Amino acid sequence: MDCKRKYDRFCCQGSAELTDDAHGRVWGHLGDISLGGFYLSTFGPWAVNREVRFKLDVEGREIFGVGVVATSHPGVGMAVTIQELSGPYRDALQEVIRELRTSNDTSVVVGLLV
Question: What distance lies between CA 112 and its chain's CA centroid?
Fold first, then answer.
């Protein structure tokens, strides 16, 4: 399969909390993560193109940023692309990805292009 993703994605253990001004908050489990985004498993995903603030708890780290819902699958979850990530949180995400890269045999190859 020809994978044209900008970033490799990796399965991970973690959770996320998303908030926005209109709809409050949603929680879920992280399915996968990359330098460009993540997939959140949640029963009530939000609509595509919604801007969200997020807090990721992944591999023992907290990462805060701003993203946009890229895909939404009712009853399953949503993909979020990362739009803003300050320096310390960008560094933390890069460290998580480095650790996942060395611990995972393969990256995830289905789903959102992020």
Answer: 10
Write the pLDDT tens digit of every residue in 63-75: 999 999 999 999 9
Burial of residue 34, with CB atoms counted within 10 A of its CB: 0-12 exposed, 13-18 middle, 19 or more buried: buried
pTM higher than the cut 0.70: yes
Q: Which CATH number fits domain 12-101: 3.40.50.10240, 2.130.10.10, 2.40.10.220, 3.90.550.10?
A: 2.40.10.220
CA distances from 86 to 43, 90, 99 (A): 29, 6, 20
Q: How far apart are CA 46 and CA 101, in angstroms?
A: 29
Cβ contact 97:81 at 8 Å: no
Is 90 exceeded by the pLDDT of residue 109? no
CA neighbor of 14 nearest in space, from 48, 43, 51, 39: 39
